[in-house]
C-alpha cells in the first residue's frame, strides 16, 4: 500500500459521530498528545501558529456544556427547535470531552504589523488555518477509535465571554469551534453522499 493510501484511509474514516458515551478508547495523555501534534504540524499563514486549543475532560467538559445550555435556553426558539437543541446539548454533555479551538488575535496582530500587506486577509487565513488544525485532530482522534463532531457555539457573545472567564483564558483568544469526542455508541448518521467530482474538480493540461 502506498503511503498516500493509508493517509486516505484515515481521511475516509473521519465522519461526524454524534452518538458518543462518557468513555474514551485511549488514555487522556494520548488525547493531549494528538492535539499537540495537530497544533505543532498544522500549517499557518507565515507560520504564525495562532491556533490555540483547550482540552476539556470530565467536570471541565461538563462545565462547558452547562454554559452552552444556560445561554441557549435564553435564545427564543420555537418549541420544536428548542427541544431539538436541548436533545443535542444533552448528547454533547453526555460525551467524554471537548477540544475548544481558538485563534490568538495578538499573534495575528503582530503578524499584521510585521507584514502590513497581509492585514486585510488575516482573519480569513486564520480561519483556514484553524480548520486545518481541527481537521487533523478530528481525523487523528477517530483513527484512535474515538468518535467526534464539530460544533460552533462561537456565534453567541454570552457563551464566548463566559468560556474565557470560566476557563481563565486570555481575552485575545477568539473562540472558533468545539470538537466533541467520546467512545462511539453508534455510527455516522447515514451513508455519506457525494456531489459529482466532475463538477468540483477541474484539471487543465
Ligand atoms: C466548517 C465546518 C463547520 C461545521 N459545523 C458544524 C456544526 O456547527 N454542527 C454540526 O453538527 N456539524 C458541523 N459540521 C459537520 C458537517 O455537517 C459534516 O462534516 C458534513 O455533514 C459531512 O459529514 P461527515 O463529517 O460525516 O463527513 C461542520 C463541518 C465543517 C467542515
Automatic annotation (TrEMBL):
Cited PANTHER family: FATTY ACID REPRESSION MUTANT PROTEIN 2-RELATED
Entries under InterPro entries matching the protein: Frm2/Hbn1, Nitroreductase, Nitroreductase-like
Pfam family, one: Nitroreductase
Name of the featured protein: Nitroreductase
Native source species: Exophiala sideris
Segments forming domain Nitroreductase: 12-183
Cross-referenced Gene3D superfamilies: NADH Oxidase
Gene this protein is translated from: HBN1_2
Amino acid at each position: 500500500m502506498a503511503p498516500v493510501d493509508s493517509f486516505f484511509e484515515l481521511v475516509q474514516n473521519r465522519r461526524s459521530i454524534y452518538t458518543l458515551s462518557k468513555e474514551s478508547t485511549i488514555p487522556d495523555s494520548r488525547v493531549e498528545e494528538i492535539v499537540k501534534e495537530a497544533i505543532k504540524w498544522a500549517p499557518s499563514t507565515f507560520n504564525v501558529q495562532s491556533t490555540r486549543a483547550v482540552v476539556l475532560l470530565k467536570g471541565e467538559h461538563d462545565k462547558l456544556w452547562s454554559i452552552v445550555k444556560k445561554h441557549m435556553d435564553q435564545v427564543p426558539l420555537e418549541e420544536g427547535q428548542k427541544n431539538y437543541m436541548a436533545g443535542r446539548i444533552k448528547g454533547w454533555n453526555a460525551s467524554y470531552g471537548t477540544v475548544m479551538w481558538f485563534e490568538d488575535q495578538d499573534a495575528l496582530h503582530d503578524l499584521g504589523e510585521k507584514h502590513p500587506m497581509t492585514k486585510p486577509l488575516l482573519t480569513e487565513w486564520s480561519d483556514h488555518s484553524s480548520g486545518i488544525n481541527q481537521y487533523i485532530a478530528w481525523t487523528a482522534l477517530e483513527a484512535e477509535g474515538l468518535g467526534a463532531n464539530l460544533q460552533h457555539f462561537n456565534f453567541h457573545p454570552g457563551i464566548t465571554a463566559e468560556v474565557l472567564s470560566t476557563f481563565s483564558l486570555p481575552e485575545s483568544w477568539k473562540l472558533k469551534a468545539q470538537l466533541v469526542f467520546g467512545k462511539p455508541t453508534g455510527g455516522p448518521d447515514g451513508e455519506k453522499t457525494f456531489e459529482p467530482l466532475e463538477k468540483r474538480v477541474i484539471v487543465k493540461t
